[in-house]
Known about the structure:
Elements: H1 2-57, H2 78-90, E1 92-93, E2 99-106, H3 113-116, H4 120-124, E3 127-134, H5 141-148, E4 152-157, H6 163-176, H7 178-183, E5 184-191, H8 230-239, E6 245-248, E7 253-255, H9 259-269, E8 282-291, H10 301-309, E9 313-315, H11 330-335, E10 345-350, E11 359-363, H12 379-389, E12 393-405, H13 417-438
Parallel strand pairs: 3-4, 3-6, 4-5, 8-12
Antiparallel strand pairs: 1-2, 2-5, 6-11, 7-12, 8-9, 8-11, 10-12
Amino acid sequence: MFPRFLTSIVSWRSVAVLALIACWLQITSVVLSWQLRQRQLVSASEAAVVEARRQASRGHRAPPVRHRDFHLGPKISDDHQTILSRIAHWSVLDSSGEFRVCVGVLQRVGESLEWMEQGEADVRLGITLVTQCSLARLHRLPPLTAHWQGPVSIAVFVLSGEVQAAVQTFHLLRKCYPSVKENVTFSLVFPLNSPTSPHITPTADTTPCHQIFSAMHQDNYSFNGVQYPNNLLRNIARKATTTSHMMVTDIDMTPNSGLHESFVSFAKKNGLFSEKSSEEKTVWVVAAYEVKEGAGMPQTKQHLLDMKEGGLARPFYQELCLKCQRFTDYPAWEKKKSGGTEGVSTMYEVLWQDPWEPFYIASTKIPLYDERFRQYGFNRISQVCELHVAGYRFLVLDSAFVVHEGFKTVDGFHSTKDAEQEKNRILFRQFKTELKMKYPESSRRCY
């Protein structure tokens, strides 16, 4: 009896083991089948994205792509659907995880596939105007391109419900202004979740050019509780450039006419476009002024100086923060008068001092802006401070300037300006401490 009992136990255990093995094999088969299906889906998705990009680069229209962040209404043309498809495929999260960004969603005509095939060397020799704004301030773009007359890269901030309106506005600007179509590359930044502002979406096929912005009324820095990410926008616009040099400005700062061509000539003459340029760690400071609203834009340095003598122009931020700009040394800059016909040239070098925040032309390889700075205060100065600590030189250019239309006054700012500035002041102190660790060999500090 005992041997039979052992035999029964062994048989039962064998059956149990075999059952477990069969169950394990079945589960493994299901898992492997699921993984294979997922890989096939991913491969198909990647292939679709690659094909969409290839078709877009060749000028073909991609099929509409449904995405939870966008509503593709029946009145949107194929061109709009192509752009929205790119946004749906290409947009990624920023480092904070709060915004989605799409770099170069609509490129300038000069950056078409045929032009790129001429060679990367041709692409890199030049300078791009890098700027940023909200959707409601895009009306400043056409006059900006008229003055710059060269490549422009702009990052536009919208609320998540304004993406469609932004894309249609981009197309309208390209249709109505040849300089925009020829020279401007658009990038887009929008928060993951945000309410829609009361913008009225224009219809690209019927809206007259003079009414593109008629329905847009939005105060600067006012986005229903969403903080305006100015430094993120600057970095995104920078990433969309294809030239070796850039000038970073705000949308309301207009360069003097001919500055693009003048600096390109200056750069070629002095070998700045060479990979072995001796000025690799140099930025070229551009004087900044503000002119009385309605006084018109000065075309040359002499014209600007005449306006200043007549009380129609003054150094930028003279009333708000003179020390933020005075280290440019405006008396020295103004002392040398010229008609601006001989092009730009270097005048003198300035050693950075706190809180100087000049506008400048530089290589696209310089340090990025710290994206923690949002809203008002310390967003530009933090980056200039890092340039100083990193060992960059600041050379002031003659006959080169940018102008803000309208005098900056204390009562011209939004109500939360002071609170935002104080918050960013605390962040700036932390930022300066971090620079000591980032550049341990540097003897320079932001004092």
